[in-house]
TrEMBL record:
One GO BP annotation of this record: amino acid metabolic process
Segments forming domain Aminotransferase class I/classII large: 34-388
CDD domains reported in the protein's UniProt record: AAT_like
Cofactor(s) essential for the protein: pyridoxal 5'-phosphate
UniProt lineage: Bacteria, Pseudomonadati, Pseudomonadota, Alphaproteobacteria, Rhodobacterales
EC number, as in UniProt: 2.6.1.-
SUPFAM superfamilies: PLP-dependent transferases
Protein's organism: Pseudoroseicyclus aestuarii
Region forming the signal peptide: none
Name listed for the protein in its UniProt record: Aminotransferase
Any Pfam family matching the protein: Aminotran_1_2
Similarity section: Belongs to the class-I pyridoxal-phosphate-dependent aminotransferase family.
Membrane-spanning ranges: none
Length: 399
């Protein structure tokens, strides 16, 4: 085989990707073992039949040819209206491009912000694909720690320092944030977001704001940093129907940003994805038209299960949950056991047949934690958490 490009070869950097435990759990399940899977952020419900009916009707009605690459006018208008209503920032269809999922949006946003060799900042703990996405556009990922002790909120001074440190190794062009956060369940406070905005303005950075969990807010309110002063012209918001509408497999998301950036991203889409299918776009429009009540219904199981986590953990001092303000995860601090998240996760799988993600797979700030996805039914979650707590208590107890 001929040599692959350095950019492509660098995406996974050849190292472990943190998914080993999850893959082992999936093999155990395939072999018939009764493993409770709490390792992946996928709803335990499927896409609503009414959305599927809209998809089916669109496809049968002929929407199977090439579709508008940046998105149908109706879908772009619906997304613009939703984003404007939610953020208060004037948003028109020209500020919106439809993407094949939030992940493609993250890639395209970094492609828009960074040239090869540029430095792109992201916050640790992070969603697993972040550094690889940055490397996929030829940029250099640099993380900024958001410590457990600070509620996993990044500190303004650390961001400023990272922006300046990056400058000596290449131009720092962007900062990627995610609130509500996967894996930590943190919701960035107004003060955190204002600090982020100040650093972006001072260092002339693009802010790439991953808001795919914006309908899963349990405490407080989601604030889009695009609404902060001077930020609309330097923010690319990544959205998706994957989590809000249980449509992970439909691969539909978007980027909202300045008109010129969206026009440039339209050119990128023309030369890469060529847009997404018309019948998926029509189904996405239908899904969004169902309104906030429908979205609240999709989010409801996670709100309920968050209360289960709080109830089960109230009985122990060996496991502590990081504040769960949003998203479908609980980040559990198991440092009282003396084990790493990785070692605890291994024992949990081997001894209790429960699969979680080690905090270390999301970066250094997740060490000593495990991430529990609230994606099994309430009774199984309750049982799994009780067994997790029992294991932690056995390990934490003095010999
Ligand atoms: N961003 C975060 C933080 C996620 O957790 C995910 C999926 O789990 C994505 C982006 C990608 O979502 P999708 O590509 O399905 O829209």
């Amino acid at each position: 085989m001929s040599t692959l490009s350095a950019t492509l070869s660098s995406i996974t950097a050849g190292g472990p990707d943190g998914w080993d435990l999850h893959r082992r759990a999936m093999r155990m399940i395939a072999a018939g073992e009764p493993v409770i899977p709490l390792s992946i952020g996928e709803h335990d419900i499927r896409t609503d039949p009414a959305i599927l009916a809209a998809m089916d009707a669109a496809a049968r009605g002929g929407r199977t040819g090439y579709a508008e690459i940046a998105g149908t006018p109706a879908l772009r208008a619906e997304i613009a209206a939703r984003v404007q209503a939610q953020s208060g920032v004037v948003t028109t269809p020209a500020n919106v491009i439809v993407m094949p999922g939030g992940q493609a949006g993250l890639f395209a946003a970094h492609r828009a912000a960074c040239d090869p060799g540029d430095v792109a900042l992201y916050v640790d703990p992070y969603y697993a694909t972040y550094p690889g996405t940055i490397r996929a556009v030829g940029a250099q990922p640099r993380s900024v720690i958001a410590a457990a002790e600070a509620g996993f909120q990044p500190a303004e001074d650390d961001l400023r320092q990272a922006a300046q440190a990056g400058a000596s190794q290449g131009r720092t062009r962007s900062l990627l944030i995610n609130s509500p956060n996967n894996p930590t369940g943190a919701l960035y406070s107004r003060a955190t977001l204002e600090g982020i905005a100040r650093v972006c303005r001072e260092a002339d950075l693009w802010l790439i704001s991953d808001e795919v969990y914006d309908t899963q807010v349990w405490e407080g309110a989601h604030l889009s940093p695009r609404a902060l002063p001077g930020m609309a012209e330097r923010t690319l918001v990544v959205g998706s129907l994957s989590k809000s509408h249980a449509m992970t497999g439909s691969r539909v998301g978007w980027i909202v940003g300045p008109e010129a950036a969206i026009a440039a991203l339209d050119a990128l889409a023309t030369h890469t994805t060529y847009g997404i299918p018309g019948y998926i776009q029509d189904a996405a429009l239908f899904a969004l038209q169902q309104g906030a009540g429908f979205e609240a219904g999709i989010a409801e199981p996670f709100r309920r299960r968050r209360a289960i986590v709080e109830r089960v953990l109230a009985r122990t001092t060996s496991v502590r949950a990081a504040p769960m303000r949003g998203a479908m995860y609980a980040m559990l601090d198991i440092r009282a056991t003396g084990l790493s998240g990785e070692a605890f996760g291994r024992r949990l799988l081997d001894e209790e047949r429960i699969a979680v993600m080690p905090g270390e797979s999301f970066g250094t700030a997740g060490a000593g934690h495990v991430r529990v996805a609230l994606t099994v039914d309430d009774a199984r979650l309750d049982e799994a958490l009780s067994r997790l707590v029992a294991l932690a208590e056995r390990l934490a107890a003095p010999a």
